[in-house]
Amino acid sequence: MPAFFLSKTKGPPRKKIGVKRGLKDGDDKEARLSRRRRMMERTEISSDDEVSVASDKISDASEGEYEIEDVARIKAKEYLQKLHESGKTEEEIGETLKEDAAVKAGTLRRQLADLAELRDEEEIAYRAHRFTPLSVAISPCGKFVISSGKESSIVKYDITARKVVGTIKRTKAGGEGQKAHYGHILALAISSDGRYIASGGHDAVLKIWDFNTLAHVRDFKGHRAPITALCFQLKTNCLFSASRDRSVKLWDLDQMGLVDTMYGHQDVVMGVSALQKQRVVTAGRQDRSCRLWKVEDESQLLFNGHTTCISMDCVAMLNDEHFVSGSADG
């Protein structure tokens, strides 16, 4: 009887693992390696190529920077040459350059009130509103004026042509779907680039309009009471709005959204004024105070009115450090 460990196992026969005909083990490995090498050669970038690509990008960027600097330098030389050719002295040229820098920075101050002359023959009068006008704004180019009235209309005037060139008004036939204001329009503002008109009033809705076409752009709802004052920050599309809800809001028209809401006044905010920096000064009516808001620092400075002050009604910034205010006592 044969031993158990020599007996054949029952079950299906095992399959022999063979190699494809015509290829040995070494040949198969070599074929796989060659395919891999070909794939790597297609996708691989040599270090020299990487350096050349990076250097090309750097050279392109540096060339662009140099071109900008060269253009600015050439323009500056041409401007200086014109100043010298005009016959100005070195001191006069220095004053001119200082004035140009102040204009560019938005800090130039000119005393013009004493030089202004009002002549009756140059007066232009319009009667486009059915009821009392409540707000007026002048375009940055000085060629157009817009006004708002109690009849919920906005009128655009061309000063040069001396005529009305556009009107935004609420119509009875328009129904609920129309875009015009409902109620008195108390405040207007025009952006410094002349793209937008901002308006606000009794309906507590801040409306944005296209300056050229007077087409409706956007509504902003955030105030809980009538909007009393509007002001754009210079050289930006940042808009400040004041309201009877005692708040001041900052809007960004580039992003078309609300940026910040500032609280502090104890009564209606009647006036708002801003220049180039993100600083805005406001007048708080019967809380008899003005507040200077430093938006970036999230801080505010409180300025209380004099003892006989009844109501702080208006305010205007002279520069980024000084402002003037007006109260009901004159």
From TrEMBL:
One of its GO terms (molecular function) is U3 snoRNA binding. Residues 22-33 have a biased composition (Basic and acidic residues). It comes from Haemonchus placei. PROSITE patterns: WD_REPEATS_1, WD_REPEATS_2, WD_REPEATS_REGION. One of its GO terms (cellular component) is small-subunit processome. Its main location: nucleus. This is WD_REPEATS_REGION domain-containing protein. It is found in: Nucleus. WD repeats lie at residues 178-219, 220-261, 262-303. Coiled coil: none annotated. It comes from the Eukaryota. Residues 11-21 have a biased composition (Basic residues). Residues 1-59 are annotated as: Disordered. Keywords: Nucleus, Repeat, WD repeat.
